[in-house]
Amino acid sequence: DKNDTPQPADDSATNGETAGEGAESGGGEATEDAEPQPDLQTRWQDHVDLLDTGDDAAQLHVLTGIRKALASPHNPPIDTVIQLGLLPKLVAFARSSTETHVVEAAWALTNVVAGNSQQTREVVETGGIELFMELMESPSDSVQEQAAWGLGNICGDCAEMRDLVLEAGLFVPLTRLISQRYPRVVLLRTVVWVASTAVRARPRPNMRPHHTLITAVARLLGTCTDEEVITDACWF
User: Fold this and answer.
1) Which of 55, 93, 169, 205 has a 20 to 30 Å separation from 234 between CA atoms?
2) 34 Cβ contact list (under 8 Å, min separation 6)
3) What pTM was computed for the model?
């Protein structure tokens, strides 16, 4: 169940936060003099336009706002993001040459695939799996970690989505990252969690061709002292 899998933490998200701004709040009945407030989609559109016309700083501000809003634990505006046609834009920014933009865009997409099955499918149909697989080859640990989260969330949706990720070659970069001599612990936790998530859904995948990954994960049980890594390695 996707709800049982860990999600990227975001301690700055608030309910109803829009791209770059917190939601307005207030109580009581509207008076005759009160101006009508724009709906959520209209307010988002004002900020989203900056993704096409703004400079790098403005674009990063909007991307960060989108990521934070999508991380809200209460009704994140995933459908609004989809309806505004933002998924292709996020995919494009995740392929940009600026690492901060890549991380924020990939993180936002990761939060979308933490939603329901239809929302996850929207990302997959926009090329999300291919994107995350590309980012797994990034020299940046931060980018690799976001890509791994995204692939893990897709795997956690259902067996069909999991199989699409496996067909794209998930176990190849996982084996490489887990086998690194001195992997960063935070990244190692994420990739081992992804590996364990990928084999939990039934029917279980055929692991015979992936003995190198099995060996790499098993080796962690004797060499790694991190509790989270060991727990997920045992699940695998």
Assistant:
1) 169
2) none
3) 0.80
Structure tokens at 146: 């976001």
CB 146 within 8 A of CB 106: yes
CA 58 to chain centre: 22
The dihedral of CA 13, 16, 21, 26: what is its sign?
negative
pLDDT digit string, tens, across residues 103-148: 999 999 999 999 999 999 999 999 999 999 999 999 999 999 999 9
Q: How far apart are CA 152 and CA 106, in angstroms?
A: 13
Distance CA 144, CA 127 (A): 17
- Other Cβ atoms less than 10 A from the Cβ of 145: the count is 26
Any bridge partners for residue 18, and if so which? 21
Residues 197-209 pLDDT 10s: 999 878 888 888 8
Tokens of 4: 């049982």
Cα-flanking dihedrals φ and ψ of residue 21, to 5°?
A: -140, 150
Dist. CA 220–CA 233, nearest whole Å: 7
> How far is residue 195 from each of residues 19, 106, 110, measured CA to CA in Å?
33, 19, 17
Output 84-90 pairs: Cβ under 8 A, ≥24 positions apart. Answer: 84/41, 84/44, 84/45, 84/48, 86/48, 86/51, 87/112, 87/122, 87/123, 87/126, 87/128, 88/126, 89/48, 89/51, 90/63, 90/66
